[in-house]
Design brief:
CATH superfamily: Ribonuclease Z/Hydroxyacylglutathione hydrolase-like
Strand order of the largest sheet: 1-2-3-4-5-6-7
CATH architecture: 4-Layer Sandwich
Strand content: 15-25%
Helix content: 25-40%
Bound molecules: zinc ion
Length: 281
């Protein structure tokens, strides 16, 4: 059975464990574009081996949907230091996020001896070679793709890949299908639903959305998840307005959170910090 599933014309998805991580490929006449590279050299090499199923077509481009380790720590095995020498696109705030969050996280994993220890020690954090601001487009030969940043949400560096010819959007972790949305390092819980609404307004009829974790979804799924993201944003704001301490906020909202409470402490912490820093009306 093939590793790759064609989710739309010319757009293939492979789902990898751990974390049910999506790696996508857009086929172009000039070569392949690979979206996200997993967590290590070894995992990236597994992608490379699986790409051979698609024939003897060179990987010319890589896009990172954002800077979280599970989406970009395999960059080294695709980028300028590798035999592929692919161009790597990412949002302009990816390098700063890598230094602020991912590099210290990697050092902590190595110091603790987290498994797979050899894999973590081998990682060479490799930033994108081309930084994208609001948007850019790329010609793959027989089709073009667009990369767009629609605002802050899962991180401040989410970059979506749009394939207009097949009405497909690779949305990274702005949406998640196989688990609740992840409020991880550097999330913007109060702005996240606005960003999903912006995406929603751009979707073509019948658009296919591929999340960073899980199966492809449709606009209806995006609407439902957006409504849940609104509940989180509004509840954080309500608790903050009521003067509930950050350490008590998850508990104080018990029964009202649309996602499991154990994933929400960092949403509350990030939301509170952003409210604390916002200018008072
Ligand atoms: Zn992520």
């Amino acid at each position: 059975m093939s590793r790759w599933r064609e989710v739309a014309d010319g757009v293939l998805q492979a789902r990898y464990q751990p974390m049910d991580l999506s790696v996508c490929v857009v086929r172009g006449a000039k070569g392949l574009l690979v979206v996200d590279t997993r967590s290590s050299h070894r995992e990236a090499d597994e992608i490379r081996a699986d790409l051979q199923e698609l024939g003897d077509v060179p990987v010319r481009w890589v896009v990172n949907t954002h800077a979280h380790f599970d989406h970009c720590f395999g960059n080294y095995r695709f980028g300028p230091a590798s035999d592929l020498d692919a161009v790597i696109f990412g949002h302009e705030r990816v390098p700063a996020h890598l230094e602020e969050y991912e590099r210290p996280m990697l050092a902590a994993r190595i110091a603790r001896g987290d498994e797979p220890a050899d894999d973590w020690r081998e990682v060479v954090i490799t930033p994108p070679t081309v930084l994208v601001g609001a948007s850019t487009s790329l010609d793959l030969g027989d089709r073009s793709v667009e990369m767009v940043h629609l605002g802050r949400g899962h991180t401040d560096n989410d970059l979506l890949l749009h394939v207009p010819a097949s009405s497909t959007w690779l949305v990274g972790d702005l949406l998640e299908e196989s688990g609740p949305p992840m409020y991880g390092s550097g999330s913007f819980p109060l702005e996240w639903p606005d960003t999903v609404e912006r995406l929603r307004s751009l979707l073509e009829d019948g658009a296919v959305l591929v999340p960073g974790h899980g199966a492809a979804v449709d606009a209806g799924f995006a609407d439902e998840q957006c409504a849940q993201l609104w509940v989180v944003a509004e509840l954080i704001r309500e608790l903050w307005d009521a003067g509930v301490a950050v350490a008590q906020a998850v508990e104080a909202g018990a029964g009202r959170w649309p996602f499991p409470a154990d994933g929400l402490a960092s949403a509350v912490a990030d939301g509170y910090r952003q409210l604390d820093q916002a200018p008072r009306p």
